[in-house]
Design goal:
Number of strands: 8
Shape: globular
Strand content: 15-25%
Distance between the termini: 34 Å
Radius of gyration: 17 Å
Structural class: alpha+beta
Largest sheet: 8 strands, antiparallel
Order of helices and strands: EHHEEHEEEEHEH
Length: 173
């Protein structure tokens, strides 16, 4: 897995402040944050899984002020796929440290319990270990690449439609 952009290590002070708001993070995620505090992956990587999900960024620690509006309670974002979907890590109870997938098209999921989302990995370390760069020799990877390009096009078209109210976003589909 190749990093295009690496935010560098998080300071001990910023990590302590972050954990004072959310509680102690799993050790595997803490290790990542103290080394990288967020990265952008080269091209589009995939998560080795039966569904072959894309991963574009791995999130570092950041301001938590508005998470209650965007993510299910008891979770935090740890990665994105580049088209608005998020990978969330449970930070409380039985979900602590587990990674789930939140589809941006199903915004009502933010009100559902985290356990109702698709479980992607049992730990952050497992999640990271399964990320790989596209293998363009693999026909499934090529199909996924074209699907992601189309999703990105639609997402950008939605953004442009929101900026231009003469063409409502729901008419672009």
């Amino acid at each position: 897995m190749i990093f295009v952009n690496d935010n560098g290590p998080a300071s001990a002070e910023s990590l302590a402040e972050f954990e004072s708001k959310l509680g102690r993070l799993p050790d595997d995620y803490r290790d990542f944050i103290t080394a990288h505090n967020g990265v952008e992956l080269s091209g589009t990587a995939i998560l080795r899984d039966p569904d072959k999900w894309a991963v574009q960024t791995i999130e570092g620690i950041r301001d938590t002020e508005f998470w209650h509006e965007d993510f299910p309670k008891g979770s935090m974002p740890v990665a994105t796929d580049g088209i608005g979907n998020s990978y969330l890590m449970g930070i409380v109870g039985a979900s602590h440290g587990r990674i789930f997938f939140l589809d941006h098209e199903r915004s009502s999921e933010t009100q559902e319990p985290l356990a109702n989302l698709s479980l992607v990995a049992e730990s952050f370390a497992d999640f990271i270990s399964r990320i790989q760069d596209f293998d363009f020799e693999d026909p499934e990877a090529e199909d996924l690449f074209h699907i992601l390009v189309e999703r990105r096009r639609k997402t950008e078209a939605q953004r442009q439609a929101i900026l231009n109210p003469k063409k409502p976003w729901w008419k672009i589909w």
